[in-house]
């Protein structure tokens, strides 16, 4: 079931590309980065799949040129 949820990340990114609403894109990027940061600080074993999904989504944001490579390197 986890693999099924991760397959929809690409579709969500395409919808974000179509929105092109600056306020929403900035809010979403801040939310994803904050969730990754908190997840790394807490290091909760049960939340690893969620954190992996956020990291994959961040990768998709990079692929669609919504974020710069410096954001990726600062996060990791």
UniProtKB/TrEMBL annotation:
<dbReference type="InterPro" id="IPR003890">
    <property type="entry name" value="MIF4G-like_typ-3"/>
</dbReference>
<dbReference type="InterPro" id="IPR039762">
    <property type="entry name" value="Nmd2/UPF2"/>
</dbReference>
<protein>
    <recommendedName>
        <fullName>MIF4G domain-containing protein</fullName>
    </recommendedName>
</protein>
<dbReference type="InterPro" id="IPR016024">
    <property type="entry name" value="ARM-type_fold"/>
</dbReference>
<feature type="domain" description="MIF4G">
    <location>
        <begin position="20"/>
        <end position="76"/>
    </location>
</feature>
<dbReference type="Pfam" id="PF02854">
    <property type="entry name" value="MIF4G"/>
</dbReference>
């Amino acid at each position: 079931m986890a693999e099924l949820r991760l397959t929809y990340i690409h579709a969500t990114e395409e919808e974000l590309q179509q929105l092109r609403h600056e306020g929403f894109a900035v809010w979403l990027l801040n939310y994803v980065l904050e969730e990754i940061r908190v997840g790394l600080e807490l290091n909760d074993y049960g939340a690893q799949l969620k954190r992996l999904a956020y990291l994959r989504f961040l990768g998709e944001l990079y692929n669609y040129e919504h974020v710069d490579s410096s954001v990726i390197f600062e996060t990791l």
